[in-house]
Write a structure and sequence with these properties.
Length: about 90
């Protein structure tokens, strides 16, 4: 996998890094999402410095990630249970 230089701008601050070429699109999308969400929070809430905005973005995004992981885990568990039931029915049909 090749690495390439990238600069991601968040709240008008450049972050230079070397990234995996396969991850470039996701990293750039993440940077845009963080930047736009932080700017929205800046309009809606009082804050002391930009770190407060980034903390709010991190909290929001990680909360959404945890919800999705929980939902996926629930679906996987449910699916596994259903597949077990189907296998048992098929075993009985033999």
């Amino acid at each position: 996998m090749s690495e390439l230089p990238a600069t991601i701008h968040i709240l008008d601050r450049p972050y230079k890094m070397r990234i995996n070429a396969d991850d470039e699109q996701f990293l750039r999308e993440a940077g845009v999402l963080i930047d736009s969400q932080a700017k929205e929070y800046a309009k809606m809430y009082a804050y002391n410095d930009r770190q407060d905005l980034l903390a709010m973005v991190a909290l929001t995004q990680i909360t959404q990630l945890l919800k999705l992981q929980h939902k996926q885990q629930f679906r996987d568990t449910r699916l596994e249970g259903r597949l077990t039931e189907i296998n048992q029915l098929l075993d009985r049909a033999d």
